[in-house]
Design brief:
The strands form 2 sheets. Strands 2, 4, 5, 6, 9, 10 and 11 form a 7-stranded mixed sheet that branches. Helices cover 0% and strands 52% of the residues. It is built from no helices and 11 strands. The protein has strands spanning 3-7, 10-13, 18-25, 33-39, 46-52, 57-60, 68-73, 78-83, 92-99, 111-112, 116-121.
Length: 122
Amino acid sequence: HVQLVESGGGSVEAGGSLRLLCAASGGTYSRYCMGWFRQTPGKEREGVATIYTGGGRTYYADFVKGRFTISKDNAENTLYLQMNNLKPEDTGMYYCAADRFNLQLSRHYSNWGRGTQVTVAS
């Protein structure tokens, strides 16, 4: 079982930037997929960006392409999400997730953090 703890959320104005972090511990997978999901007001949880350690392949939702970048520090077991040019519609709770399978942007990950709030003011 993998433990995930998110941090880095906060409040910014539209056009601003935030960097989310997810510290992972307890996992024993040699290869796994980690990613960021969000739940915005009135919507179901949706995939934002994920990365598969088997090759480093990344996957992005269309609504963040060109604005968000996912990366991972394997030595520190930390996942990052650099968010630039934030928009009010990016407001929501952002969750870190991990799974041994390459689930890409699917919501069927087996391990989840508790989330970190991102608020973007117009």
